[in-house]
Design goal:
2 strands; mainly alpha; Arc Repressor Mutant, subunit A
């Protein structure tokens, strides 16, 4: 009988399964409030970002309910592990915060290379995308498409197809249900104002052909983005 390939399960999915097992065992009863993220992280011996991703997955699955300003409550025992609609049994999706940590490394170097090699056309594309972000934000729209265009313009300036393809995969992950749900909580007009200001710093360094400055400003931007998405649930704006 041929060997059957088994896809490694993402860490956040393993954690989500542990939490769901605790719910099914009765340790966390339906209707009760879960411990705080830091306490769950300590109890399960994992990082808080991984717990955050696991909780988002459980919310998508309908097992828990996040009440901003109040806490996270057990909503149901979850579906049968044999259910085809069980999100945790679908093909693995990258965790949002995991993606953002990976982007920190590759995009910092992309920005440094862009500062060295960007053509006037590349700079123009970055500027146009940034202006589009400002226009979207002013109109009350989430400027996600122009944000993607800005980061891809930097990647294109590197003239490296492997970097371009890698970043495309990272950015495509933003269309997944976990990323979208996390954005529902932590993306707001105020957060995008901060992000746009950080983009201006990146662009200024690239225009000045300052590789080290471009690297540092991109690192700052992505660290701040990760911080925004890792904020306390109590600070998240209500989706109501």
């Amino acid at each position: 009988m041929p060997d059957k390939s088994v896809e490694p399960q993402r860490l956040y999915r393993q954690i989500a399964k542990q939490i769901q097992d605790l719910i099914k065992s009765g340790e966390f009863a339906v209707g009760s409030r879960l411990p705080a993220e830091r306490d769950l992280a300590t109890q399960l011996s994992v990082s808080r970002p991984s717990v955050r991703e696991a909780l988002i997955a459980l919310e998508v699955e309908g097992v828990i309910e996040v009440r901003t300003g109040s806490g996270i409550y057990v909503k149901s025992l979850g579906q049968s592990s044999h259910s085809k609609s069980n999100y945790l049994n679908t093909p693995a999706e990258w965790g949002p915060l995991e993606v953002m940590r990976a982007r920190l490394f590759i995009e910092a170097e992309m920005a440094a290379l862009a500062a060295e090699y960007a053509s006037p056309a590349d700079i123009k594309a970055m500027s146009a995308a940034l202006k589009g972000m400002e226009k979207d934000a002013k109109a009350g729209r989430i400027p996600r498409d122009n944000d993607i265009a800005f980061h891809m313009a930097i990647a294109n300036a590197c003239a490296n197809s492997v970097m371009q393809d890698t970043l495309k995969l990272y950015l495509q992950a933003r269309n997944g249900p976990l990323f979208e749900r996390l954005g529902d909580y932590f993306e707001s007009p105020a957060s995008w104002v901060s992000a746009i200001a950080e983009h201006h710093e990146v662009l200024a360094a690239i225009q000045a052909h300052d590789s080290q400055g471009a690297r540092k400003t991109m690192q700052k931007h992505l660290r701040q983005a990760h911080k925004r998405f890792s904020a306390s649930w109590r600070s998240a704006p209500s989706r109501a």
